[in-house]
Amino acid sequence: MAPCNILFLFLLVTFLTFATTATHSINDLSNDTMTVPQHGSGGLTPVTAPISDYIHLNCSSERSFFSSGFQSNLEDLFSFLSSEAASNNRFSIHPVNGENPSDSAFGMFMCRGDVTPDLCLQCVENAKEQLTQDCSSSQQAVIWYDECTVRYSNISFFYRADTSPAYAMPRLANVSDPKNFSRLLHLTLNNIVGQASSNDNKFATTQAKVPGSQSLYCLAQCTHDLSPSDCKTCLSAAIRELPSCCEASEGGSVLYPSCNVRYEFYPFFDSNSSSTQTPPWVPASHFSYANSTYLHHNCSSDHEPAKPAFERDLKILFSHMSSNATVANKSFYKGNVESSVNGLFMCRGDLPSLLCQQCVANATLRISSLCNSSRQAVIWFSYCMLRYSDKYFFSNMETSPSFQKLNVTTPSTHVPTQGFFNNKLSNTIEDVAEKAGDSDGKFVNKSLKLNPSQTLYALGQCTQHLSSDQCKACLESINTIIPWTRLGSVGGMVLYPNCNIRFELFQFYMTDQPPKDNPSPSRRKDKKKGHARTMILIIVVSTTSVTFFSISYYLIKRKGRKNSEVILREKCVYF
Questions:
Q1: TM segments (predicted)?
Q2: Angle between helices 308-325 and 353-370 (to 10 degrees)
Q3: Angle at 251 between CA 222 and CA 481, to 5 degrees
Q4: How far apart are the C-alpha atoms of 69 and 265, rounded to whole Å?
Q5: Is 472 exposed, middle or buried (0-12, 13-18, 19+ CB in 10 A)?
């Protein structure tokens, strides 16, 4: 066979094989993508809630074999605890006895007394998954979350107060008057020990007034299986641990397997919790700063005439700031000129470069006008913050001067939903502080659904030269200075030289992409069907056309060869 014919047949077979394979692949893809997971009578399968961050986890060094009866009993134990949490229980203990006593599994979960049943169930499920993942071969383990404690062992621990293993966690910021604060803290905690140990839920919270405008919030809880005396003994031991871990700290907690205590300067618990309560309507403050708006400034009081060199260097610094603000995706800058003046700017982390540039330009103009004879100054806009000083301040975390925009009511004003939104807001700020400190850009925003009609939006940011711990401490300190007992509505901000927090009931920050309505499963299915049909049609038409052309070409060549053979035979006969 001629080489051209061999090549032709090879190309033809290859093309037909490709068309067949591609068609089958697309049919398979269409079938896969059109299969919608079903749950029950036809709804979508619920998405499993992501595992929230746990506080601490302790796995014992004693190991069990994966094939042992203990592992099987542990799975049964976890299944039972999940079903108990799903039945709206906040506490449960359960043994799973093995044929061999060493294979028995004993377990417990305890949810915080103020959390909702849904949150309790989610916490238990998350704890179960984390324990399975990290302590898969341990015979004993305990894990603590803000909302729950889950524990298991191959030895019964029911009806006894265990204080080991333990975990203590202080806040980074300290109080200004440690001696008097320590006295107030221990008095307040000792008072709720009696309350927690004497009620059926073994749970109590309280609030105490701190000199000034702050309030102290305390919580104590024991596992329900403890007697009142054992609960009191356990909590008293936890309180005695506080001086060694958290003395002078603005917040702290001591966690035992059988009890825990915690205190903060913000309402981390819900004082009005109810498992059947519909989330209430939250009053809004409606502070709207859609565009870059001047908020506040502070000029130092040293009004001595500035030296010409300082004024010159300050102008150079402002020029450097303005030029750096034009750099794409640059929301932070710090620098100095001739060691005589130091400065920085910070734009909100969600802004495009153009808005950052405009805000920095406005800030340099206004601060030059307002603080022209000051050696130190800071100015805040809704989109940016700018600061300069004749002293080096880059290694410091500073909370003064500051600016607050909060809706503070009079002491006699009662807001019915205050406990609800104070709890949600303070915990949101705490979460923002934690995540902002760990993020590369020291910037985090977060939203939280309060009820079917309202969503809380919060934003936290630190200057990027701060360490992770400094950023967390700066934002956490904002949580402690908010006058929670007199906060009339949700909507406000607190601004420091190194960090800021803002919260509203409307989305005031920008997102990378505007939210889009997800198409229904049937629409997605039809759309993918259409894509599959189109691709199949294109491939079939293309293949048919090429095949037809190839066959035609082959027949023409064959006819030409036959004609040549006839002529050749005729010539041979002639000769």
A1: 535-556
A2: 160
A3: 130
A4: 47
A5: buried
What does the alpha-carbon distance between residue 536 and residue 22 come to, in Å, rounded to a whole number?
A: 8
Task: Quote the CA–CA distance of 478 and 493 in Å, as a whole number.
Answer: 10
In-domain check, residue 333: yes
Q: Which two tokens stand for residue 30?
A: 């269409």
Give the residue-averaged pLDDT of 519-536: 40
Instruction: Assess if residue 472 is contained within a domain.
Output: no
| Beta-carbon-side half-sphere exposure of residue 273 (alpha carbons within 13 Å) | 20
Q: Residue 191 is part of a domain; what is its CATH number?
A: 3.30.430.20
Query: Are 164 and 241 in contact, with CB atoms under 8 Å apart?
Result: no
The burial of 547, by beta-carbon neighbours within 10 Å (0-12 exposed, 13-18 middle, 19 or more buried), is given as middle
Task: Answer yes or no: is 44 within a domain.
Answer: no
Domain count, the chain: 4
Structural domain containing residue 325: 294-389
User: Is there a domain that residue 453 lies in?
Assistant: no
- The CA distance from 360 to 323, in Å, is 10
Q: What is the pTM of this model?
A: 0.60
- Can you give the pLDDT at residue 438? 92
Residue 213 CA, chain-centre distance (Å), reads 30
Contact 252, 260 (CB under 8 A): no
Length of the chain: 575
- Say what the pLDDT of residue 215 is: 87
**Alpha carbon distance 548, 97 (integer Å):** 75
